[in-house]
Write a structure and sequence with these properties.
- The protein has 503 residues and is of the alpha/beta class.
- Helix content is 36%, strand content 13%.
- The strands form three sheets. A seven-stranded parallel beta sheet has the order 3-4-2-5-6-1-7.
- The protein is globular.
- The N and C termini lie far apart (106 Å).
Length: 503
Amino acid sequence: MHFSDLGLSPKVLSAVTDAGYTQPTPIQAGAIPHALQGKDVLGIAQTGTGKTAAFVLPMITRLEKGRARARMPRTLILEPTRELAAQVEENFTRYGKNHKLNVALLIGGVSFDDQERKLERGADVLIATPGRLLDHFERGKLLLTGVDILVIDEADRMLDMGFIPDIERICKLIPFTRQTLFFSATMPPEITKLTEQFLHAPVRVEVARAASTASTVTQRLVKSGSKPWDKRETLRRLIREEEDGLKNAIIFCNRKVEVSELFRSLVKHDFNAGALHGDMDQRARMTMLANFRDGKLQLLVASDVAARGLDIPDVSHVFNYDVPIHSEDYVHRIGRTGRAGRSGKSFTIATKSDTKYIDAIEKLIGQKIEWHDGDLSTVPVSDSEDDAPRRGRGAPRRAGRKDEGGRGRGRTSDKRSHPKHSDEETESALPGNPAADAAPAESEERRSRKDAIRGENAARKAHDDNRPQRDHRGGRHRHAEDDDKTVGFGDDVPAFMKIVAKV
């Protein structure tokens, strides 16, 4: 089958041909004809199979007729993260180059004013994260009564990030007669209930078993001790072992603080690495992704913000520095490699406390994952994990997150105390850090300052010992030996209590 057999318009076919594509992927071949007919579509396919083009191409074809009005977009695409939203915008730029479509992108980290100006001009396509979309609606800058096509992309990620109440609210603001295109890589029971609520007689297009992994990805588990320095050493060893075939790699961590620590460690050991997590501002995140795509960075240490749908087609390796808490995240993480028929490798570093999470992953994907160099039974007892709960190791909180659209949801602080051991891989040890170069001089100055402080404290203590103590009831200073001889206020009766009351 070719794209010309799907019913797309000549302008769209021309853009697809210019992009170098001739044959659609299975999800595209199954979804595009039904989308062009205006039917609701439920698309289920593993990540990296071309779901984005499956809704972008028919949308552009249908938008050739009609014109957008101010503040009333004609179509709406909801994405869970800023990066995915920006990537969809790039697809409209690529495939809609023969059309004059106004595309508005509503995401956090960008000025409201710039986004409002785009809405005022009229948007044929509105791409948004749920939080920022509702922010504009509540400001009175957006009307959704003109939306003809609604796309909910990465629905399982929406569920995981707590966006379902926002999506339910948004759907009530859109006409009931809309067409809905619903895409997800996995179908947990909550998502099934969601489709029953939002879709009307949908055409189900399932090109792979839900939660399956691509056959082009070689998966391995790697044993490690539980200490942070053990895991970092294991990761560095893996990277060096794969050096010949490693073009680039994404390294996933469960927590943002671990992303920062591991990034500093890799840079200290002379690896070409960058970092990506949700606390970075939008410009820094997009710059980091662009540098990784362009080959300026070989390693990208990231949180799960990079696990869903990012179109970096030629990633050779994925390293799971932490075993994901939710087994569905494993499918998305390793889906960053082995895309578009290419081969890829994934390595998951596991400790003894990760056993139940590995079992859940293997149950989800329906296969056993081979061990790279012996299973956890070969890890020495002295290196095994203490019986501390997973919560204490800093597992990410699933509730109370700040969404990618910039709306707070009862956030919990991610500030935790760090181990007091002397880790050689601290930020101050980075090459070229002025603090590291000035360490000896600072130590001498610090010792002098401490001596001065000790002397000052000793003098203050001697002075305080000679001062009268304050009574625990809040009275004036008096010597301790007089406390037992004083009755009431004594001679210190306040003046206001001596005023004669008028009868």
